[in-house]
Amino acid sequence: MKDVTKTLWRSALLLTASLALTLGAAAQNTGDGSIYSRFGLGEPRSYPSSQVQAMGGAATALRSFNYVNFANPATWSDQVLVHAAVGLLYQGVVATDASDQTSRLNAGSFQAFQFSFPILQQKLGAAVGFMPYSRVNYRVQQPDDFTTGGTDDTTAVAVRFEGTGGLQQIVGGLGYRLNDNLSVGASVDVVFGIIENQRRTNFLSGDYIDTNLSTVTQLVGVTGTFGALLSVDGLLGEQDGLMAGARVTLPTKLSSERVQTLGESLDRDTVSTRFEGTTELPLSAAFGLSYHPDARWLLAADVLYEPWSSFDSDLPYPGFTPGAENFFQDRIRTSAGLEFLPAGDDLIASYLERVGYRIGFYYDQAYVVPLAGADLRTLAVTGGLSLPTLLSGTRIDLNVEVGTRGSTDQELVRDLFYRISANVNIGERWFVKRKLR
Fold first, then answer.
1. What are phi and psi of 176, to 5 degrees?
2. Is-contact 95 103, C-beta < 8 A?
3. Could you give the 3-state DSSP secondary structure of residue 276?
4. CB within 8 A of 342, min separation 6: which ones?
5. Would the pLDDT of 424 be above 70?
6. pLDDT for position 115
7. Maximum pairwise Cα distance, the chain
8. Least buried of 52, 245, 328, 429, by fewest C-beta within 10 Å?
9. Which tens digit of pLDDT belongs to each residue from 364-374?
């Protein structure tokens, strides 16, 4: 009976994962997000794990039995179980401008798929994942007047800007434990995606022809990530431990191909122009600390640095023009989080005692500079519940994030956003030799 129950649970979780992939793919191109995703390569996104997501994103020095952390490949060394994780995300944005007018936008999307397994248990581990890198998803309309040359006649015009797409990454690599205290890891990261921007001009009266300018940019490139994790146990007690982690993702050049199409309708009477070049992603470096006083508590903190002020490209992007002044700045992100497991490592405690409770926050100074002298800052709090299942090592995580981005000063827009996600994390022992009786 026990084996039947486990089989049913496994089937249900795998079905949920399959539905998440299907529904996430269908929802990827719907809804709207922040107007600030229009700039550069879009709004940066990351998904190291659902545990990290609920703890503010503090991930560089975080290692766990139930999760695989894609923020630092050095944490892949100590794997015991084969892990598979998948999740869905729903987010909403309430944007307010300087005149106190608001708009409500929402979108659903697939978050990530991750898979990992031990090669040598608690010594050498491998992982591969498909995750977001950036997201472009906005829509804004700007009223204007069009004046015919040589006359005083004016015609009302509605100019609408829209954008979709973004960059994704496929990550694969190894983590290796050198000794009792030090682990190292490396991964190959393939970054690719399509960013589409459109400018629709609609004349509200007169005999003028509406126009649509579409810009579609395809990007692809390869980079690498290197990480290290130092762990020291028994600092203040028998059960406590301190970990320090660092990782660096190398800068890389993405091959870029852009097609601009101008016409009344993009399926007829159009003029297309093709451009080719490279777009350089900057270095990304992170350092973090984590401390667990005992099996019930876990604290983590991180800092991330990306020098976007050195961004370069042969192609123009909103906020950047080749050969002109770069309006991007260095990105700095700080985060911290807390996890509490009432039962600790007691697997036979009551269900509520085995539920995990998480909370965190982060501060992000974006690389985007929407106006000269106007920094774009994000401040958010995160939280989540980790629900155990009948399968040991398998959990369902429900996370929430609420934050604010930007301000209404200098006629900018302030975003109030929320994100809700559901994640399935499957952990099982594979490749176990059965003993003959």
1. -135, 130
2. yes
3. strand
4. 296, 349, 352, 353, 354, 355
5. yes
6. 95
7. 98
8. 429
9. 999 988 777 77
Share of the chain above pLDDT 70, in %: 85
CA dist 120 to 79, 86, 385, Å? 8, 25, 31
Separation CA 164–CA 255 (nearest Å): 19
Beta bridge partner(s), residue 312: 280
Distance CA 89, CA 96 (A): 23
Domains of the chain (ranges; CATH) run 2-428 (2.40.160.60)
Which pLDDT band, with edges at 50, 70 and 90, does 14 fall under? very low
Contact 110, 4 (CB under 8 A): no
Q: What is the DSSP string of 113-173?
A: EEEEEEEETTTEEEEEEEEEEEE--EEEEEEEEEE-TTS--EEEEEEEEEEEEEEEEEEEE
Please tell me the distance from the alpha carbon of residue 78 to that of residue 286, in angstroms, as a whole number. 21
Contact between 301 and 289 (Cβ < 8 Å): yes
Count of beta carbons in the 10 Å neighbourhood of residue 4: 8
From the list 435, 424, 431, 433, the residue with the least C-alpha distance to 118 is: 431
Least confident of 37-51, 106-120, 265-279: 265-279
First vs last C-alpha separation in the chain: 21
Interior angle at CA 170, CA 358 and CA 329, nearest 5: 75
Q: Where are the alpha helices (DSSP H) in 182-319?
A: none
CA distances from 302 to 189, 245, 334 (A): 21, 9, 6
- What is the residue type of 215? T
Burial 252-291 (b: 16+ CB within 10 A, else e): bbbebebeebbbeeeeeeeeeeeeebebebbebebbbbbb
| Whether the predicted pLDDT of 167 surpasses 60 | yes
User: Tokens standing for 2?
Assistant: 């026990």
Which has the closest alpha carbon to 283: 257, 250, 330, 318? 250
The strand pairing partners of 265, in sequence order, are: 268
Judged against a pLDDT cut of 60, whether residue 146 lies above it is answered with no
Identify residue 288 by its one-letter amino acid code. Answer: G
pLDDT bin (cut points 50, 70, 90) of residue 179 is very high
